[in-house]
Design brief:
The protein is α+β, with helices and mostly antiparallel strands. The chain is 45% helix and 22% strand. Bound molecules: zinc ion. Zinc ion binds at residues 137, 141, 145-146, 149, 213, 215.
């Protein structure tokens, strides 16, 4: 495996060897803001672990997550290639390591390496599909299936144990904290998760899957179609 980032790992060895000197090792610390709304993007990030949230904040103080990025993706490349600003806030919710590339350098590399540009565009296509599915989910689905989808997405990215407060979960869902408390308690009683002082442990993925809306499977299918067409049936 040439990179712990699954996207960089898709590049052929020759292309990867040309971008490797541009990769900067970064620690993505919890709470770190990779971008603020309407700020220019200076770096693209390719996480090896952890989770990054794209969050829309509304003037009244409400916020909602529109996408989650981890080792299967990147953030900032599309903005870097077009020298654009970030439309929304982007924040590390679970710490992890990763690589970053300066925006100017990434732009030059993408001009020289058509397969790098194609990969980044393909990911942008997936990212946009994820945002659209999340928008539909937030508008139509009930809080419990949405919360299960969200917990499963974190499970896919970081495994069964992570630190997350109920306040943060409520903020990402755009719902009241009391709703999250009730649902987390129900999931705990059902044996799906345990939750204590912000420490989540997922005991039984199948219970979360049964209670999640279809959006998780839809988003995973988009990803498989774009990046692993030969493994379409392997959505496990
Ligand atoms: Zn949904």
């Amino acid at each position: 495996m040439q990179s712990e980032n699954l996207l960089l790992n898709q590049l052929n060895a020759s292309t990867y060897s040309k971008i490797a000197p541009a990769l900067i090792a970064v620690n993505l610390e919890r709470g770190h803001e990779l971008a603020r709304p309407r700020e220019r993007v200076h770096r693209a990030y390719f996480p090896y672990g952890g989770a990054i949230s794209c969050v829309v904040k509304l003037p009244g103080g409400d916020a909602i997550e529109t996408a989650m990025i981890g080792k299967d993706g990147e953030w900032g490349a599309a903005q870097a290639l077009d020298d654009k600003v970030s439309l929304n806030g982007v924040m590390v919710q679970i710490a992890g390591k990763g690589s970053a590339i300066e925006a100017d350098r990434l732009r030059r590399l993408a001009d020289e390496l058509p397969d790098l540009r194609a990969l980044l565009m393909r990911y942008e296509h997936f990212f946009s599909a994820q945002v659209q599915q999340t928008a539909a989910c937030n508008a139509v689905h009930q809080v419990e299936p949405r919360l299960c989808r969200w917990l499963l997405r974190l499970y896919d990215l970081v495994g069964p144990d992570y630190m997350i407060t109920q306040e943060f979960m409520a903020e990402m869902m755009g719902v009241r904290r009391t709703s999250v408390t009730t649902i987390a308690s129900n999931l705990q009683k059902a044996g799906a998760i345990s939750y204590s002082r912000g420490q989540v442990h997922i005991h039984d993925v199948s219970i979360l899957e049964a209670r999640s809306c279809e959006c998780r499977a839809e988003i995973r299918l988009h990803y498989e179609e774009l990046f692993h067409p030969q493994e379409l049936n392997r959505i496990d």
